[in-house]
Every structure is written in C-alpha cells, then in structure tokens.
Task: structure prediction
Amino acid sequence: MPAPAALGGAAAHAAVTGTAATPGTVVQEGGRPTVPAGDEGPVTLRFTATLPEGVRGPVSAALHLPHRLDGAAGDAEVSDEAVVSTCAVGGVAYGPCPWKWPYNDMGLPFDPPSLALPTVGAAATLAYAVTLDADETAVGLGSPDASSAALDARVELKDGTGAVVAQGPVLLSFVPGTPPARERGTLHARDRSGVLWRYEATGVTSRPFERRKRVGGGWQVYTAVTPLRKPDVAGGGALAARDRDGVLWYYEGTGDPGAPFARRVRVGGGWNAYDTMTTLDSPNGALARDAAGVLWKHDVPAVAPAPPFTPKQRLQGDWKRYTALVGTGELGRDRSADLVARDASGQLWLHQGRRRTGPAWNPSLVPDTARTPVGGGWNVYDLLV
Result:
C-alpha cells in the first residue's frame, strides 16, 4: 500500500493538472456538533469534500472560523490552546493538526482563527474527521462579542497552485462545559470517628458535589481544620489543622487527587489562643480571632511549605461581636477576598476587601458603618463554610 501524501507518498510529488474553474463542494455529516468548553473531552466533526474532475496532485485544506476576535488578546479571553484537534482523512489518522490563533506580537487580532488540515493526494471525494477538544475559554469563539456559542465556519481546499478546488460551510457550537479540575474546589468534612472526607465540585449547579471520597482517619486529634490556597479537584491547595495542644500543622496539596495531601509539616505552637479560624482565597492565607476579639491575618507565601505563613498582621475592628467568621473567597477580578460575619442575633454581614489596585486586603479599611447587611435568621445554622 503506498504511503499517504502527507507522509511522503508519490501523490505528494505528482504534477498538478486539470484544475477546474468551478470549485467542488464540502458537505457536513451528522449535523452541527456541540462542543463542550471544559473537561468533557473531544467531539468529532465530519465532512466530505467532492473535487471537480481533473484535479491531480497534493491538496491542502483549512477550516476557518467566521470572524476575528475583537479587542486585545487579554480582552478576548480565548487562550492560545482554546481548541486542540487531531485529524484523519479517508480513514488515515494524521495525528495532531495545528490551530492558528489570531494574535500578532502585540496581542492584537489580525486574522480569523483557522485549523490547518493534512495535505493529501487528490481524489474524487475526501472524507475528513476532525476532533475538537475545547477548554473553558472556547466559548469566546462563538461571536465577536462572545454572546453566542454557535458559529458557521468555512472549509477550503486548494491545489498545489493555490487555486481553490472545493469549499463549503460547516456548523459548530461551543457551549460552556465542566470547568477544569484546577478550577473546581473541594469541600472537606470530618465525621464523628475522625475520618476526613473529600467532596469534589462538579461545576454543575444542580448537582454541586461528586460522591464523597475518603482522605484518611485520625483527624479527631484536631480542634480546627481550615483550607488554605483553595484545595481543588486536581489535588492542589492545602489545609491547616490545629491539635489539642495548640500546635498548628500544615498539609500541602500533592497534585494527586487520589492522595491529595503530603505528610504534615509543623508550623508552631500557641494556636489555641484563637477561638475562630477561617481562610482567605485572595490573597491566600488565614484569619484567626483571639479570645479578646482581635483578628489576625496570616498570609501564605507563593512558595510553600517553608515557611507556611508570613508574620501575622493585626486587623482593627470589633470582631468579638460575631459568632461566626467566614472568608468568602474571590468575588471579582479586581477585588481581593471578602469576609462574612454573623452576629449574636443571627444577622449576617458582608465586609468587602479592598480592590486589588489599592493596599493589601484589610477589613479595617472598610469601617463597621460601611458593612453591608446580608439578612437575618442565620442563627439557625451551627456551621458556616
């Protein structure tokens, strides 16, 4: 069996003859595929090109999206690996095929995105199978303003002289999919026997957690456990745990979801001075309130676990009034973490962090008179997380 043209077969070197003036057609098979922009995996797009009689020699092909992305690369929110593809022609697999993204060295758009398909020898019909594996940014390919996930792409085949020998539309839809594992958090829960369980987020609002997974036993020795650096489904993040003697221990994420935490590292003693501990997601760290009602901030440096925390910083304010304090994580691109607090009457309050363009996060920069009421009735709960 002769080698395919793209692998150096004879057809790749044949003379180009008889190119028709009227291009042939491209017909999509199976209707418009829906491509999830997330962790679901690839979807296959299939179409067949019919060439005019007389076309000989190598034929190249490309799939073009219908528009260029408006604005700078950072504004478009489409990564340089938004879609990864493999290609096959006539049942012969050619492996990965490259996408060209529409940004120049200045990060500005200049051409629509396009996919280079394998160059093969001419035939009456050429059947293409293209896999499309999209990340979460691919929904931005739907239209110039990213308001639609549906688009009409175009396939174009050319002969060795550059003349178009077949062309036609193909329909695609990019829809939001499951966020990648590194962007889905985990909830940890300890049962009465001291076993720690892990609930991984699905990214689906109607079914927020997967079935629980056992982390391990022995966690009953701790009087407080709090997440640090946002534990995620991919095995990233970290936990801090305080034992009955007031010693704080640090558990670094391994990056292995099957064994998500490395062996514990001793941070230091004296942590039983605090009656409340909670986490901050941005900047990463922990908040701890002492018996006098003073709130302290402990930042986790980018390189961990040595040292797990920077020197503590005192935060002003009357924090003794609250029966629960919870860091809410990051609520916007230009704002650091916020804090919600429940008072003795069951009223929940929001303390907003400073915007990232200003100083480091500090609730004292937002006076108590500026705190925002969320609502009452929160004293029916014995735990906020």
